[in-house]
Batch of 4 targets.
Target 1
Amino acid sequence: MPSGPVPGHPGFQLPDDRQPVIIAALRTPVCRANGALKHLRSHELLAPVLTALLAETGVGAREVADVVIGNAVGAGGNVARLAALEAGLPVTVPGLTVDRQCGSGLDAIVLASRLVAAGGGTYLAGGVESISTAPLRAHRNDGGEPAFFSRAQFAPHTHGDPDMGVAAENVAREYGISRARQDEFALRSHRRAVAAQSDGMFDRETVPLPAASGTVPGTVTADDGPRPKLSEALMARFPAAFVDSGTVTAGNSCFDADGAAAVVITSLTRARELGAADGLAVLGTDTAGVEPQLLGIGAAAAASRLLAAQSVDAADMDLVEFNEAFASQTLACLDHLGIDSFRANADGGALALGHAYGASGAVLVTRLLAQARQSPAAAADGKLALAMISIAGGMGTAALFRHIRL
């Protein structure tokens, strides 16, 4: 996007008819893989969210220029198009699936924002992951027989291609993140999520889904990850999960989850025509690469560059959402940026809610819009919101928003 403000539009880089703004954001419940949503494939998770977004905003299905969706471990075949048709959108609306692994959902929103900035119209964008129904994957060996593997290769072996947990240990060691800090942060994430769930903070952003046949009740309405009985004593009992005598445990790591999240993103001009009351204006985005061995620091690299380009200090952020794949990398990134960890993820994060790979970046944006609207000062323009996610292979994506009244 252009680097200078447009006269008459303070703080915005584009004129109103090209200034991207998110006017709605919804998600499914995020549930443990092989759990409450295990019977739903990716397009079946996503389609109800797309339908609900159109109903909430009044955007006509034929107005949608494209459906841009992130996905990391699905079956291929362009889940964005499949979900769009499943949701009842006309055949004239195309679909595009984005794969930047854990960053896919946020990067889909980033791409859609850039399309709006180029004059492209109105988009549905987000991410989805059904880890429960992800296909088994295999290479063909020399004889043509399948050689199954658990995850894709993210970097050449000459660079190092550690498993996620090992990379989290690398970050903890490199940046001096202790076991005690990791456990404290993870426990706080659960306690915040439990409190938010109890207070109904997630209700308005969550689209219920049908439960498996014969299940009572007949719908899945809530995240199943937050643990109200988790305590300091229980956290201390978890052994190192990935490296002998390490500090990263199952307690301070996220769990695999199924879920979907998406937004409606359009121009400021069109948002006003639709009668939207408020939204998240996209001020800027960035994606950065880092050493694959320290992949968890990628979000900080992207956010540092983004904030510098926008001439904004991290201390100016009113809302911060970071994908908590591991407490070690979350704390390392927040430390690097100078953001007090108490200010991040006000209602808990992936340590409590789970990590639905391709959806997680879009969940961050959904949470930011919900928090901006729930804030006591929600009627005032100007709240700055930052979403960040680190990505396999040594990358990170960050997006900066301003909550505005329309």
Target 2
Amino acid sequence: MSLFWRIFSLNAAGLVVATALLLGPVTVSTPVLPGEALILLAGLTALLAGNAVVLRIGLTPLHRLGRAMATADLLVSGARPTVAGPAEAAELIATYNTMLDRLQAERAAGAGRALQAQERERHRIARELHDEVGQTLTAVLLQLKRVADRVPGELREEVSLAQEATRAGLDEIRRIARRLRPGVLEELGLASALRSLAAEFTHHGLTVHHHVHGDLPRLGPEAELVIYRVAQEGLTNTARHASADRAELSLRPLPDGVELLVRDNGTGLGAAPEGAGIRGMRERALLTGAELRVAPAPGRGTEVRLRVPAPNRGPHGGHQSPPVTPAPAPAHPVGDRTADSTADRTGDRP
């Protein structure tokens, strides 16, 4: 029953009863006797209480809708108020849920285009770092090698230090380029890319244990890229902010998809609000209809869980968000192996 008919029926019933009593043998004295005043007061109280109950029941779904609207987050899929209550309230809640679904789909499409452009820009920057800066530093190493053979003995140590600084800068450029463009993901697949990522973040003070199941379902390139980027961001947050000495990276199959887990034993989330890194992970999760959960780990630390549905099983019953297709790998005029072998021939590498 709608809220209008609930209130109207209650008021009508009260008025009908009052009219029947007035038309009947019941009379009110002048002045009003105490007993008659109590009866009238009791009837008025019952009518007001009935109205209050009806209004409370009818408006509770609207209060619940107001709280949901105040805390709505388009990056969290599935968070919708329950459609319940009188007809007007139920229709309003259903309309609000439909609007959220449409806004979430539009946001996912826009985020897909933005992240696709971002991946292309990452590839362009990685290519320029490798082809321009990397090969310039390689040429500098060759020049320093030739200079080192001719400088006086008292200057050889300084030239050697310059060689080491240039070599360290070249290695750092290559590491940055690899992180910008996950070539191992395109060439060897997701499992090898995650193992390489765990090895990359294993350094002094932090040990990353990885476990990637071999019987994973076939995933599309956009889903693999989302999994890789979420794992990369999770380990980056662990290395920079968690003060952890141990982390875990695992990928296992589920009946309806796969689950990525990144867990550490660090200081945990605390009361800090979500930063740009976590928001970026949520944006990526929406692209494949995945569910992302960032919460305290059992005991201490933080865990990131990403559940990616199997192919052709997008959000809202099969809807598939726009894919983020990695840009094609750039063709390098001089590849990593050429630069490395050049440095080896000149004795720049131990």
Target 3
Amino acid sequence: MNKHHDPSGQADEQQITLRGPAELADALPYMMGFQPTDSIVLVALHGTSGRFGGRLRLGIPLSPREWSPVADQLVECLIEGSERRGSRPDGIVVFLCQDPGEGETSRRVMERLRPLAQRLRTACGTFDVPVHEALCISEGRFWSYCCPDSRCCPPEGSALALPGTSVMAAAAAYAGIQVRGSLRQMEGRLAPMTTPAAVGQERALDTAGAALVPRILDGAGREEVAAETLALARRLMTRIAETPRTGSWAETDAADDRLITHDEAAAVILGLQDRDTRDRAAEWMEGPDADPALRLWQALARRCVGPYCEHAAAPLTLAGWVAWSSGDEPGARVALGRALRVDPEYVFARLLHQACNEGLDPETLRSCLRQARGSRESSGTSKAEGRPHRPRPRRVGPRVGRRSLPPAGAGPAKSPAGNRGRGRSRSGQRGTRSGR
């Protein structure tokens, strides 16, 4: 089996030939930019050589009852997305990635997920697109659901190549492609803090909400809060920029967290719940602004603790946007996927996630934001000063009775169902949010 992966996107410049299930399994982290965990991954193949095309990842649903509709929706999304980019897939490769639970073996994981693999193969067949390979990867071993030859695919599974020793690893190193740990580790960088400091952060959010709500409900006060939020965010970005990245990501994240007080974090988090303020903050997406802005949004996402977890949708979406704008598609998908987990109805995250997954060029949005900033700067007035203010309902405090986050891997990195049929009423909750 010959498959080609082209990190640069131009197959005539560089081709890496992968032969058989072992090399496909070893290539997965380099295709995704991270080690998928608790994930369904579909990869489109094009042409007689099986050139890799679009790819789609979703957390494995906890309930087997969800496997059939999820399989149908995932396959449909991948095929339709490929067609929009100009080419229907000639085949698909399926990966199921999950480590064993307590008291479970990796082989047991493979057997438990076999019906899901079969359902995905059936869904592909419905669209007349063959599955060239379906692999289960669990705890450093892999199995093929398609290959019956025990000589290359033994019942006990085969060990993955040692990190950095495969042909794909060599090609990725040459091309400058990095694998940034597992999906669980990447999501962990964006998860709410669980240290004792979380108590103080929640208290600061309560205090800031009590002070900001009356001002936001007032027309003039809303614009003042927006200006204060953006000014404070800019100061924090300057502070972060003066502290360059050092050591590991964990060390950099810890250093960034120490640079921001609880009160500062609370003020910016709550201010970003306003849609206009968030859109103004999205203008910091390139040049010297990009890195400190990304680090700030990541740090603020970690500060959305306790009942304020859903407030993380705004900083997570901004983090995803800056990552995508900077060319970091894996990081963008992780941040936007988590934003949709904390608030599946967050429109900005849904639109960005769809655009990122469809391989669109972020320059279109960058141009719009540059134009908006240029118009505002040339007029010398704020957006609100150029037109009458129309107050919108908003929510600054936490929602009452809101569900907690699902376990890692259970929520979608892409919502293939498009949240169809969601008509959940929000009556009885403490207002609504405009940060969408």
Target 4
Amino acid sequence: MTAPRPEFPVLMPGKIAVFAAFAAVHLLFFALLLPYFSDGTTYGDVVLYRHWALHGLTTGSWQGVDTAWVYPVGAMLPMVLPALAGPEFYMLAWFLLCTALNFGAVRMLLTSRTAGYGWQAACLWIALTAILGPLSFSRVDGIAGPLVVMGLLLAGGRPLVASVILSVATWIKVWPAAAVLALLVVSKARVRVFLAGAAVSAAIAAGVVAGGGARHLFGFVATQGERGMQLEAPLSTPGLWQAVLSRGTSVVFNDQIDTMEIRGSLAGGVGSLMNPLLCGSLVLICALLMAALRTGADRGRLLVTGTLALIGAMIVFNKVGSPQFMIWLAAAIAVGVATRGREWTVPAVLMVGISLLTTLVYPILYVQLYRDLDPGVALLLSLRNLLVVVVFCWAVRELLQLRRRSGASPALHTS
């Protein structure tokens, strides 16, 4: 008979080393951001978050309620919280919020019963945070990412709580809907999962409607639909090379949403295909999940693999290709490593390469890309996009193999 697991796990030397690495990475970025903290200024997109939050607090006019917004309305919550510290301390408060959520994700990776390879996954998450730090601490995805890690780890034992966390994350940034969808398909408690998510959505919707913003509740969907092919999107790669080679395509700044877009011969046709391809791929992946589930595939494996496949589709078949999207992949892969270990070596290694290339392109070499159309930087971005497609294909292949292996298992048991 095995001894019961202590309610509060004792810190072993390995865990101490992981937390020391966590502290070192976050202290490094604290030092790098210290000039912004001292001057009361902001870094990256945090300048927009501070503006939106302070505007709402001072005027009573809120993004997503009183006007259409590029984000789901729930994103205003993590933007408002740092504003309570005052405008001059906004960047510091934002950094501390990201750090706290990262700590929660790392601690859960180390202590979750479902994370048999938790310290390896925690090390991976910390390493990816170190590489993607310019994005992790300056984008709202740095808030949603740790929430998805925690939600997925809770899904096996506490699906209702997992659904609440993942639903909240979805109302902050749309992409965690991939994890919600995978959980709905594979969970035995899908009715409770659905009801918990519906309750979160109903509460948020009720708040927006009460504020008179019913017509803006899904404004982020229309805003995304009006966008062109963004420079960094995976399927913008042919158009990017057309622009580099001066073949009737150019890079244009969209000042309404502050992004660089591809305009020209291939961009329009490819852009018109994105929504149908995205919807079709999501339906196909859900069909693969259900088929694998019917043949008896392991639900835990299906959850993390399906989440990665759905996230991959949301990146590959997307007109938008913002660098922070790589945090989406990082969250799913960290949980995959935590639960499956070496089986996820391929996406883990690819994710390190994807992160390095992403940071090289943005923010280090981004000016040379959009202003000079430097072929060397374009090559780095193209390689990054290729690796993203490979990760997506790996996840889809794993779903197919899970279905085949589980479909063959009954014959093995009866022989």
